[in-house]
Design goal:
- By secondary structure, this protein is mostly beta strands.
- About 10% of the residues lie in helices and about 35% in strands.
- The strands form 6 sheets. Strands 10, 11, 12, 13 and 14 form a 5-stranded antiparallel beta sheet that branches. A 4-stranded antiparallel beta sheet has the order 1-25-24-23, with no helix packed on it.
Length: about 400
C-alpha cells in the first residue's frame, strides 16, 4: 500500500511539473511576440533582424517597353497594377489631359484612356490617386478635397462620397501608400500630424493614436484603427522626412512599414496586428543612432515601399539606401541617386534574401504582379531612358535554398 501511495505521489509531482513547464513554455512563446510600440528609438536600433531558413534572390526575366504619346509621362506619382485575369494592366493618372490611362502589359499598348471632366457637375479635381475595383468601377480620391468619386469606364460619375471635413487632411495616400476599397469600406494611411508644427509631436500627442483610417462609404463616417502609432516617433532624434510609413492594403493582408526603423505591422484580418523588424543586412544601426530631427533624411535608409507577392507567398521591402548629402563634386544628391535595395521576406517576414538593383537604372515605381516584380527603368540618369516609352524590368523571385 505504501509503495502504491509513493508511486501515485511521484506521478502527481510529474504531472504538476509537466503542467508548469507547459505553462512556462506558453508564457515564453507569448513573450517572444514583438511589440515595439513602447520601445525607444535607441532600443529598436539595437535589435537584430531575424533571418529565414529559406533564401531567395530576384532574377531579371525581361524588359517591357510601351510607346507613349507626347502628353504622357514615362513615370507616375501613383503607379497602379491591375490583374483582370485575362489581361494585366499598368495604370496611371495623366494630369496633362486629365485622364486615367490603362496600358496592356502583354500587348504593350495603350488599351484605354478615360477622360474626366475638370468643370461642371461631373468635375473631378484630381486624377492621380485611384483604386481599381474592376474596369468599370474606379474610385478616385480627390487630394485636398476629401472626396471619393466612383466612375465607370467612360468617366461618368456613379457616386460621390465626402470625408468628414474635420478629418479631410488626416488621411494620406501616395506612391508609397495605396488606398483600397473592400466591401463598403475605404482604407487609408492616417496622417495624424497634418497641420502640426514638429515641436507639437510629443509622446502625449502620439499616445493612443492609430495608423489606419477607415472610411465607411454608407455612413460617410471615418474612424482610426490599429495598429498604434509607435511612441518613438516623438523622439527628437528622428529626422522629420522619415516620420511616416509605407502601406499596402489588399484583401488578403494589411501591411505597414515604418520609414526609418523598418518595423512591419501585418494583419490578415485588418485588426489583429503582429510586428516584425526587417531591414537590409547593411543597415547602419550605429549611424542611425546618431540621427537628429533636423538631419537631411537622404543620409539614412528609407523603407520606401512594402509589397506582397501573393503567388510566391513572399514580401518585398523596397529600400532607398542612405547616401551622402553631396556627391564628390560637391553637388547635392537627390532621391534618384539613391541605390535601391529590395529585401525579400518569407511568410513570417523574416529576411530571406536581398538584392541591390543596378545603379542609375531604375525609378521608384515598383509593383508586385502575378509574374514577379515590375520595376520602372525611368531613372533620369539611365542612358537608355526614353521619355517616349514606358519601360520596365520584370524580376522574378528565385529560390536559392
Amino acid at each position: 500500500m505504501k509503495k502504491c501511495n509513493f508511486v501515485l505521489l511521484v506521478l502527481f509531482i510529474f504531472i504538476v511539473s509537466c503542467s508548469q513547464n507547459t505553462e512556462n513554455s506558453v508564457k515564453s512563446n507569448v513573450s517572444k511576440v514583438n511589440n515595439f510600440d513602447e520601445k525607444s528609438l535607441d532600443d529598436i536600433l539595437t535589435l537584430p533582424i531575424t533571418f529565414s531558413d529559406k533564401e531567395y534572390t530576384l532574377e531579371k526575366v525581361k524588359e517591357i517597353n510601351i510607346p507613349i504619346d507626347s502628353v504622357s509621362q514615362n513615370w507616375s506619382k501613383y503607379p497602379v497594377y491591375y490583374d483582370a485575369d485575362t489581361t494585366q494592366y499598368y495604370i496611371q493618372g495623366n494630369e496633362a489631359i486629365h485622364s486615367i490611362d490603362f496600358y496592356d502589359l502583354d500587348r504593350k499598348t495603350l488599351y484605354k484612356r478615360i477622360k474626366l471632366e475638370k468643370t461642371g457637375t461631373e468635375a473631378i479635381h484630381s486624377v492621380t490617386k485611384f483604386f481599381i475595383k474592376n474596369i468599370d468601377s474606379i474610385y478616385i480620391f480627390e487630394t485636398g478635397h476629401g472626396k471619393i468619386n466612383l466612375v465607370d469606364n467612360e468617366g461618368h460619375i456613379l457616386a460621390h462620397y465626402s470625408l468628414p471635413q474635420k478629418y479631410m487632411f488626416n488621411v494620406s495616400t501616395s506612391m508609397t501608400s495605396n488606398f483600397s476599397i473592400y466591401g463598403d469600406k475605404a482604407y487609408f494611411t492616417s496622417d495624424m500630424f497634418s497641420g502640426l508644427h514638429i515641436s507639437e509631436v510629443t509622446e502625449k500627442l502620439i499616445k493612443g493614436k492609430k495608423m489606419v483610417a477607415v472610411f465607411d462609404l454608407n455612413t460617410e463616417q471615418l474612424d482610426f484603427t490599429e495598429p498604434q502609432i509607435p511612441i518613438y516617433l516623438a523622439s527628437e532624434k528622428l529626422p522629420i522626412s522619415l516620420f511616416g510609413c509605407s502601406s499596402h492594403f489588399s484583401n488578403e493582408i494589411f501591411l505597414q512599414q515604418t520609414n526609418f526603423t523598418g518595423i512591419i505591422y501585418h494583419s490578415k484580418n485588418k485588426k489583429d496586428y503582429q510586428q516584425t523588424l526587417l531591414h537590409r543586412k547593411g543597415f547602419l544601426n550605429e549611424e542611425a543612432k546618431k540621427s537628429r530631427r533636423g538631419d537631411n533624411g537622404i543620409v539614412y535608409d528609407n523603407h520606401f515601399l512594402i509589397l506582397a507577392d501573393k503567388k510566391s507567398n513572399l514580401f518585398y521591402s523596397v529600400i532607398l539606401e542612405g547616401i551622402e548629402e553631396k556627391d564628390l563634386d560637391g553637388k547635392p544628391n537627390s532621391y534618384n541617386d539613391r541605390p535601391i535595395t529590395i529585401v525579400i521576406a518569407d511568410e513570417n517576414f523574416h529576411h530571406a534574401g536581398e538584392i541591390t538593383l543596378p545603379k542609375d537604372t531604375h525609378f521608384r515605381n515598383v509593383m508586385a504582379t502575378r509574374d514577379g516584380l515590375l520595376v520602372s527603368n525611368a531613372n533620369p540618369k539611365n542612358p537608355n531612358n526614353d521619355e517616349g516609352a514606358l519601360s520596365f524590368t520584370l524580376y522574378k523571385p528565385k529560390k536559392i535554398k
